[in-house]
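re the bet — no i am not wrong, look at it urself. input seq straight from the record:
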Amino acid sequence: MIRLILLLTSAWSAAGYPSGVPPAACTTMFPGHGVAAQTSASPYSITVSNTSYSAGDEISVTLLGSNFLGFMVQARRADWSLDQDEPIGSFTDIPSISNVQTKQCSNSDDTLSHMGVTQSTTPHTSLTVTWTAPSPSAGHVRFRATVAAAKVTFWTNIYSEIIEDPSAPTIGPTPTPPESVTGPSDLVTSDGCGTTKGCYQDPAGCSDRSDCNVLITWQEDGDNIIFQLLGKMEVTGNEYVAIGFSNDQSMGDDDVWGCVNNGGPIVLAHSYNTGKSNAAETLDGSSDAIGSFVDSVVQCQFTLEKTLSAKRRKRATEDFDLNDQYYLLIARGPKIEVSPPRVSKHSVTPIITTSKIDFTGTDVLSGGAGANPMLKAHASFMVLGWIGLASVAIILAKYFKPMWPNSTLMGQKVWFTFHRSLMMLNVLCFCIAFILIFVHVGGFVTYQKSSDTVFIHALLGILATSFGLANPIMAMFRPHPGTPKRPIFNWAHWAVGTIAHSLAFAAVFLGMDLAALDLPQYTTWVLVAYVVLYVIVIILLEVSTRVVADKEKKHEIPLKEPGSSSGDDDQEKPEPADSLIRTSLLGGFIFVTAVVVLLIIIVIALQ
């Protein structure tokens, strides 16, 4: 439901144009219209009042062309060797027109775009705004635009001339990709795997685009290695499949080669991973690139020299030598930059081989290293804490206060001792899980740089953790029983705990479907069945409690007159009439909860 609400907030207006800037568009500037961009020359252009700038300068920017309604404009770095994804500076002096606005992608007002469009909206022929340069300056920049004449008719990659930063180095020549020709529809196959070439297959034993999600092959050819890449895409638009050569099993200091479909011929892209980011490299050392895009499958073939010195690359500190062995990182995604060609963040969880590969050999491999151990630990602690410990603790507090009236444990009523212990363990679990994911991700995820599901999952997790921490803090200051404020505390304690538990369940549900864990579908259905059982147990306990309470009211013994003695003050209090039912339901629920939690944690560990 939350995901649906989020999607509806960016739904199309009556004329079919988006009313805001979706997170993916912040980087790709490619609208989600379900069609490809126009390949003809753009009828639109961008003019600027100055061709150089200093920190804090203001420049007039004009978007020109006939009858456009949808648009998006950003200033980006012009130096291809730097990060060209980040919007630079800010827009001001916005015309007082109903469908023009500024948005934030990275910083305030860094993106100019349209708002909701209706059939009565007057099309633009020109639009002039003021752009304020950042302070300090950010190097040479140029403006980039996407402009739509209609929902199915739009142009992308419309550039202004370069606005130079006198304090920045001169821009080097932009590498030009080799000419790419369309290859056969079955360019990449498993023929020869294990005999004349090495292969990675997903799933194991697949043969070609008909049954492979991923197929990577390599074949020694003198001083070169011939690579073939096949990747099945989950979306349509701009797609890529890429391989990274790594000395370890994580992103960072990796040489990356990818095949990019940009609505035309497949082009070869070379980049380098520095930490969690990716920056373009020259195409030195590559040749003979061909490719095809058929049935949502990217395929290509190219040749790499075995040895590529660090001096021939901008960012590498070590020589790249295919005579050595590397782990293979395999990524796929829709987000790419093609000026120059470069892969961007993957949309499908990368495959990481379990061992280093000899690219001069003919080994046949499949499978991968699975999800990151910190990610697995995060998920496991969340499931143990919120699904296991908290669920039992909440039921104990709600329905078992009258139970075991003549017994104590650790100086407290039995139900309270178990409730408090379980909730303290839950707090410990979700705090550990929060720290693990925070370290793994490197901070908070941002809406602009994550998918809707990832962002909502993270938001729900933060809220659940916040409410989960608030409740024990509230409990430390709870009023004594019988005081006027005790009922207020009881309701607040129940409300905060219920909200935290509900948010945590929603976060866990979304987490089950995240590509980073890649859990089998049945784990979600196991959790659905558990939730159904949880509701049934609560209903049965509620009914049993109310039936017993009604019976006790009907047979209630009138109070004796003050001063009289009942003669049974020292007698033990009786168990509730439905104690056997409650105990049986609790025992069965704890058993099922333990089985479900253990099963899910085992599945997570095996991924």
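see?? The chain has three domains: 10-159, 181-366, 373-549+576-606. told u. also The chain has a mean pLDDT of 80. so pay up
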